[in-house]
Amino acid sequence: QQERQRRSRRLRELRALALGQGDFELRDGSGAARRTADFRGRWVLLYFGFTHCPDVCPEELEKLSRAVELLERDPALPPVQPLFVTVDPERDDAAALERYLRDFHPRLVGLTGSPEQVRAAAAAFRVYVSAGPRDADGDYVVDHSVLTFLLDPDGLLRDCYGRSRTAEEVARSVRGHMDTYEPLPP
């Protein structure tokens, strides 16, 4: 009873934050328009990053991919859709995302768009994004929030995971949310 009350309180707090609410439109690796609503009905692990990231993004995408693989071992669980939204649309077009993401989970979908579209998607999740200064070669690093978001089949934020969480911890948490999930009434 106490655990159920704690989960209920946590969900109320997350809904009050209104993270991920609204609908953004971006393009996937094939150039097709994708909206938030396209992923309703599925569990989603969503990460914001960029392909030129030297270390943090690859580490987080490895962890996200590993968590999805761990969940896939149980055929009784619904599939989890891994998503990657770039915070660097200047360099991360659809082709760049396709090349970069092929090294991670085979179902990982990369999304990009215009700078305005990407800013709107990041803002919906309150993701901090700031491009650093360009070096002599014109290269730059993008500072951004390092969080992976879990969205339930209703499109609502269920949890978020920082760098300190392992793939095993993320998978265990996602499984726990799946076990206690109750769809919103129509």
From TrEMBL:
Domain Thioredoxin residue range list: 5-179
Binding-site residues, Cu cation: C53, C57, H144
Annotated GO CC locations: mitochondrial inner membrane
GO terms of biological process kind: mitochondrial respiratory chain complex IV assembly
Locations listed in the record: Mitochondrion inner membrane
Disulphide bridges: C53-C57
Primary location: mitochondrion
InterPro entries cross-referenced by the UniProt entry: SCO1/SenC, Thioredoxin-like_sf, Thioredoxin_domain
A molecular function (GO) term: metal ion binding
Topology term for the membrane: Single-pass membrane protein
Similarity comment text for this entry: Belongs to the SCO1/2 family.
Record-linked PANTHER family: ELECTRON TRANSPORT PROTIN SCO1/SENC FAMILY MEMBER, PROTEIN SCO2 HOMOLOG, MITOCHONDRIAL
Protein name from the UniProt record: SCO2 protein
Gene: Sco2
